[in-house]
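Our example pasted here:


***
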Amino acid sequence: MSKRIALIHATPVAMQPVVAAFRHGWSDADTFSVLDDALSTDLARAGTLNAALKRRIAALAEYVTGIGIDAILYTCSAFGEAIDAVARATPMPVLKPNEAMFEEALRLGTHIGLLATFQPSIPSLEQEFVDMAKAQRPNVTLESVCVPEAMAALTAGDADQHDWLIAEAAPRLAHCDVVMLAQFSMARARSAVQQVIGNKVLTSPDSAVAKLKAVLNGPAAIMGEIVLCGATPPHSAGLHKPVGDRCALYTGAPRQGYLLCQMHKISCRITTKMHRDLTHGYSCMPRTAPIRKACTPGHLSTSAYHRSVRCWKSAAARGSFG
């Protein structure tokens, strides 16, 4: 059965690139689009991601969830904080536009270039990338270039001028190990940019589609399911044992564990005891984490948070927490 994915857009120019990415990278996925084309202009006018804009991002997720879907992909790169809030509250994978591309870039180099066309998106994108890099590759540097004239050309219907302006700006990042095209609408310019600086170019739609495909098709078999038990052995010993591709995790921080799993699209289910423990705060680290530091939920450092997530994903990929 094909997976049904909601594509949520804040501008119409992002729609065709992601549809094309699905056509090339995951043609049997069942996708549909929801558009609020005033979001980007309202954000630019407000100058900040205010509470009203956050509510609109959440309302779009609530609407598509009611239709019946397997995942949500936002294509609007300037709304990361609001999308994070949706991911925490939604019982299915919710992907930010650039997180998959950022992960891929961090695997490919240490000096990363970010080429954008929508200026209001840059602060949130840079912060998101820096937070991710601190945990995964602390020596990474990010260099950003914005070409707002390209977005203006595309909005006015001049796609060729859009591509040319992006390609013209690309040499400013030619010294980087890899260059990321920040907006979904920029994917159409990839070949033009590659002609100028070579093949070290990533696009957010292609990376996002590849990650969603892996999350919804692959990890059910590759990563398995984590069973979260709300206490550490010996109190909960024997509550759950690995069955097939599932594995048990005994953690003194069931609430933190649940949120980590939800935010990072790790398949999980919870025990009855965990339901009772969701309101309690305990140590946040899984028993088998490579670090033993205890933190209370809400006071988890960024580096510890990401180390914990990497440990859980690695354990799930192995199929056990031995």
Summary: The two ends are 33 Å apart (CA to CA). The chain has a mean pLDDT of 76. Residues 99-207 form a domain with the Rossmann fold fold (CATH 3.40.50.1860). The chain has three domains: 4-96, 99-207, 220-318.
